Amino acid sequence: MFKLRILAILLALVTAFCAVAYIVTRKAEEPAPVEEEKIYSYSASEYGAAAPFADDSGKIYLPAGIDGYYYTADLKNNVKFYQYTSAGFLEAAPETKTASVKLSASGQSIPVKVKYISVDGVNTGVGVFTADMDSSVKYYDYAFVHLIKKPEGYGGGYLLLADYTKEDFYKTGKVYNDIFEYDMKASSVSLKLSQNTRLIDSNATYKQSWDMMTDEFAANIGKQKYFLSSRYYTEEEMCRRTDVMTYSGDYRPGIAVKDIIGTWFVADDAGNHYLKADGDGFKAVTAKEGKSAKEIKFDGDYFSDYLRSGNWLLNKSNGEAVNLLTGDRVKFAGADFTAADVFSISPDGSKAVIACCAENNENGVPVQTLVYCEAGNSSAQTYSEPLLFCEESSFIWLDNNSVMSARPADETGSGAASVIYTFNTAA
Asked: How much is the pTM?
């Protein structure tokens, strides 16, 4: 079974992660008092008390693509769907159906059984392939597919988005490497985008930056028929330099917006919104044909000095977050955010979680940090402990006051389960 890259710590044997402190006294005749050694305990974790919900069966819940619905999955393609309610996660009432499809990739035929449900006439589903399911498949030891309703600009029907990066199994921000048209009635898939000049990556498969999609991008393009591609850039620049292309069967699809930073893009009535390099910094651009472009300028490097969550961009140096669509600004405080690796903001922009990946303390124990803060509040709730969160998973907001992540399930670090942190609004 696939395991997250969790901190490999045998906490039952771990030495103190806070050094023994000696208090020096001037009274030579009295022995110096010694502060009691502090041993980390998973069961007595301060964060465990603050985020008391932990799925006792080891489930990790991920968004299914329809508001309020989530799924769990493993690498044996055991998939279940749930609805989140005031009573918690309840197994989804809609019947789970299965469709068998074959993906065409790099000359291989990859079989995937897609598990899906229908909610108010809209289908959503996922499927997993691993090499032990069919040893005849070459080059690909893993494929994850997400069944989604086509974005409005694509017309009616469904797409199957395929991701081939196993390390992203528990991520919500997957970058899909192939876009398949899916015929629900015939249970058949096809590639509309031309593959005629598709190059080969260093792993001997088709270039994975050729046609890209994210769930976020699909939800944000409105009536436009776009997809993402880094095909004209190096492998190292994939998702760092990106073109927004027009989805078609043309030999060379047209480029709607060239060389944006990252993958953030929104198309709405105000125009196309994206990030572009600008001298020593970068800028957020709103461009609409026949109108002057609007810009919000930023200093520094997008990838090292900032973190993005949805339409919000956090400046790690000062804790200020800017809404890239509106220009609205909110300030988070109460901690040093310069070491932050993850930023996730609530849907209404009022609360945020900041995560710092593991660093060894002076005793060699890997310690992570989580900061929960509210806009305009000078204080924050900070936790610094081992085993706070799984670094391959995501932070998922269930509402404006509750955020879910995955945490190692016990002190061995060999399993994981979803946990929910709820802000104390009364404080």
From this structure: 0.90
